[in-house]
Specification:
It holds the Pfam family PGG. By secondary structure, the protein is mostly helical. The protein contains seven helices and no strands. The chain has two domains: about 55 residues, no CATH class; about 90 residues. The relative contact order is 0.11.
Amino acid sequence: MVAVEEVVHPMCKETKNEDGKKPYDVFIESHEELVKAGEKWTKDTASCYIAVPLLFRGGNNQTGTPISLDQNIFKMFLLADSVSIITSTTSVLVFISILTSRCHAIDFLKVLPMKFITGLALLLFSVCSMMVAFYAALNMILKQNYSGSRGIVLGPI
């Protein structure tokens, strides 16, 4: 529609047809089914992406104090795990905002694509930081118990 608006004379945009409708109104009416299909696809896709960040989340000693509290690898684990939970929660909120929003034809131009890009970027960042947290946790476990096989396990990660 934006491409058509750029070519049409400005006066034609406000001209009404025989039924008293402006071109924008005719466009919305004729693409009503497309908007409904787009809204269904958008909400189905967003609901699938909500499940992924909610799947991820994990030691302490008997007193509740974290093991290896003073090690840098543990600090890396804490930071990565914190970033992961913040970005995954924010991603869920973005996808919930897509699910609860009313989809108008104009929303498919900028608003919904930006929400999807933001949600997917946050989800990707969450998964990457979760992998860093997993690496740090596995590194701490292997350092204490299996120092010889550490490189074999951590290398591919």
